[in-house]
Amino acid sequence: MGSISEQNQQTSVLLVTIRAQGLTNPMLRLGDLLASKGLHVTLTTNDLAVKNRPSTIGGVHLEYFSDGLPQDHNRVTGSVDLYLNSLRKFGPRNLSAAADVAAEFGVPCAMVWTQPCAVYQIYNCFYNRLCEFPTENKTDMSEAFHNMHKVKWVLGNTFMELEKDVITSVNDAGDRFWPMGPIVPTTLFGKEEIINGDLEGITPFTSTNESNCLEWLDKHKPASVVYISFGSVLFSSQKQIESIATGLKVSKRPFLWVLKLPVNTETQQQFGILEEIKEQGLIVKWSPQTAVLSHPSIGCFLSHCGWNSLIESITAGVPVIACPRWSDQPTNAKLVTDVWGIGISVKKNLEELMAGEEVGRCVEEIMSGPRSEEFRKKATELKRAAREAMADGGSSDKNIQLFVNVISSFS
Questions:
Q1: pLDDT digits over 78-88, tens only?
Q2: Listed range (176-185, 219-228, 229-238, 354-363) with the worst mean pLDDT
Q3: Which single residue of 27, 235, 262, 303 has CA 20 to 30 Å from 174?
Q4: Strands annotated E in 249-337
Q5: Which CATH fold would you assign to the domain 207-386?
């Protein structure tokens, strides 16, 4: 009988996803983790019609399927509905269809869950009617849970020390939810980043953009800068921009703001308030987020609480000002404030808008308020736990190895 290592080299794993930063990057990094354990890993995703598609990134082989859109279609700023409808027509009907194919060929299937386990359990309880909810209308995740009986494992981008109670509860109920995270850029663990590009083989930032942000941060005191970013998808509204800018002006604290201007707005000079605070901070279109969060000058992160951003902030040990919008974000924000105790939430009015004074209040509370040291202490504790989980012999590292061993036994 061959060794586990010999078996692993004969075991192939196919990862299936659609081209979206919140999905593709975690899948690439998970694939690289599995490849580092000796598996042959292939990631397939929709064809972006780019001319120079890479065949490998890190230890992951790449294959592509058509998304049905013309080459000149803007998949980043174009219509999301058009993009998804085209994918449904030309690509897999939905990602849960992969479970149908696996079942047809007798291949074991796992779901990669890119949100916290708490959100998984909420959807699970809703779909299976395990609890009462205010509505019975189907959610966007209903299709995914329709095929859960064909899934042997759920692999989560979280770690046991972060969500021990809910992970234990899910597994005790008979599911197999195995936390394998935090699945984040390895720079957050003080290591060299292997996955250093996107599926077009392009480094996600230019050296100029990176050095501008980091050199600017180098000039500031430890834990003094407010970092603001609402992810790669959301464009800020005029009212939101004005509210945040007013709050920053009131706080008089230095800030680094990744700002996506509203559609049809060409320059930030159209906002007088931005001109008033331009000497107080740095406003950019993009930042090397993991390098920014790891920088000692960062004092807090004003975030939409998308899970990728939040798990990066947790791994970096940065307190959070939560400003959630939709999907898993309100639940993630609740975890930040009420469960992990690493931040606070911005209060909004009935129109879901936040006042400038409220932004300023939150900045001051988390940076120098009575609980500021408590926020930093708890954030530091979770940073340490995240590193320990991914270290050799840590809780997530053991789960990754267990998964590799189990699927290798099917070969």
A1: 666 776 677 66
A2: 229-238
A3: 27
A4: 255-258, 282-284, 298-303, 320-322
A5: Rossmann fold (3.40.50)
